[in-house]
Every structure is written in C-alpha cells, then in structure tokens.
Amino acid sequence: MLNIVAANKLIYAMLSHRGQVRRGNEDACAASPAAGAFVVCDGMGGAAGGEVASHLAVDTFLAHLAPPTPNGTPAPRPQTRLNTAIQAANQAVFQQARQSPELAGMGTTLVAILHAPIPSRSGDSGSMRNVATHFFSRASDPPTLWLANVGDSRCYLRRRGRLEQLTDDHSLVEEQLRAGQITAAQAAQSPMRNLITRAIGSQATVDADIHGHRPQSGDLYLLASDGLTRELSDDDIAAILTDVPTAATQASLNAACKALVNAANAHGGNDNITVLLVALNAA
Q1: Tens digit of pLDDT for each residue in 237-269?
Q2: pTM higher than 0.85, yes or no?
Q3: Residue 161: domain span
Q4: How many domains does the chain have?
Q5: Could you tell me if residue 188 is inside a domain?
Q6: Residue 21 sits in a domain of what CATH number?
Q7: Residue 178 covered by a domain
Q8: Does residue 189 lie within any of the structural domains?
Q9: Tell me: the pLDDT tens digits for 54-82?
Q10: What is the 3-state secondary structure (H, E, C) of the chain?
C-alpha cells in the first residue's frame, strides 16, 4: 500500500508491507489532510484480531478527531482532540473484543501526528481578511504540531540532518532500560522485548503520551511500526532519510518509504513493516 499526497504545505507518503515472515498484515495507517492527522497502528491478537484491532483503531481515531469548529466557535485544544479520539478508538477495540470471543485479547499500538496551525492576523489593517495561519512556529509561539502514542510504534524527527526519536516506547524492556535496570545490549537480546505495557483496547481506558512540538521548515517526521525499528537501527534509518532533501518532494518521500521497507525486509522482515513520512515545506 503506497500513497503520496500533497496537502497545502504538508507532503506525506505511506507504505505498509507484510514483511518476509508473516502471512498477513496486522498494521494499518491512514491520513486525514482535512484534519491534519496522520496515524500508524500495529495490531496484535489471535486469529484475525490484530488486523481487526489496527484498522478499527485507525478508522475510529480519524472519525472522532473532529476538525476545528466553524464560524469562530472555539475549538477544543489539540491535546483534548487527540485524547478524545484515542479514547474512542480504545473503547471501540475494547468493546469489539468483548463482544466477539474469537477476537478476545486483541489490541493495537497507535502513534499519531496532529497538525493544528494557529490562526493569526497579518498585515496592518487588523481586518479579518488578513487572517493567516502560522505553519512554522517561532520560539515564542505555542506548539502547532502534536504527537500522541500508545505502545511501541514510534515517531522520529529529522531536522537539519539529525534524527531524533520523539516518543517513548511503552514496553517492559524500554522501561527497564530507561530505569537503568538493564543495558542497551541486554535490551536488544531480551526475550521480553516484544512485551508492551500499554495498548489500545486492552483495558476500558488507556493512558496516551501527548505532547506539543514547534515545527520548522524542512522538518521530516517518520511514524513507524516496530517492524521497521526492530530491523533497522536509528543510524540505518537516518542514512536512508539523507536522500530526502530539506525541501522534500513527493518523489523523494515515495523513494524513502520504499527504501525503508526494502531495508527492513533485507534485514529479515520478521514483522509487518509500516512507515509514514510527513514533510513540512515552506510555501
């Protein structure tokens, strides 16, 4: 599955592959340019549970991520919109698992971006005809891009050639690593490295990490399931993304998605692999 779309100053591409080992694909990804939302889910569960969970979570998340209200009515804060959508997705998966015995125990990770630009006045007249939208934030501006995650699907930022992981994995091994209880080498070899501590649908409610970010022109965001990050190191990912110019093009994002998936498959492709790239370009 490949999709490349330009939406105003956002350019995005996404690609999902079942990998070299799995028979099916339990990952799901989607975008809603109108809402400024991008999401990746990695499902889990017996039979078809993982596939059901990930697609149900993606669909419910986007359906409940209401865009700002019209006619000047104050909109909910971005973090409230994200949490509302995540709780709705969690309830949908949780209730479906309870109602369908064959889906018992299913769940999914979720990682998402919400672009929520700030309306502001430009020009000297103060007229509403001069209302514009801040896309790239100044240091004094509030965040205009929000990240949310549950589980171990990740969001990375490539800025000025440097790759940074913006999300924390909700996994037992990563929590032990952050607490200094194990080393990075031990974490990589741990038989419990696939055990996540939070998931959409495992309980009636879920705690999501939600935080704001100030985007800059040339930023490149990567959402990915662990089928990518368990096969490729951060250095591997960064090297592939060097081929995406600061002023990203649709062709460069297309090529980068394919290169990331191909590299993960070349390293074993032991899980489903999903990548979603979002580039923020100047007008």
Answers
A1: 999 999 999 999 999 999 999 999 999 999 999
A2: yes
A3: 2-168+199-280
A4: 1
A5: no
A6: 3.60.40.10
A7: no
A8: no
A9: 999 999 999 998 665 666 677 789 999 99
A10: CEEEEEECCEEEEEEEECCCCCCCCCEEEEEECCCCEEEEEEEECCCCHHHHHHHHHHHHHHHHCCCCCCCCCCCCCHHHHHHHHHHHHHHHHHHHHHHCHHHCCCEECEEEEEECCEEEECCCCCCHHHEEEECCCCCCCCCCEEEEEECCCEEEEEECCEEEECCCCCEHHHHHHHCCCCCHHHHHHCCCCCCECCCECCCCCCCCEEEEECCCCCCEEEEECHHHHCCCCHHHHHHHHCCCCCCCCHHHHHHHHHHHHHHHHHCCCCCCEEEEEEEECCC
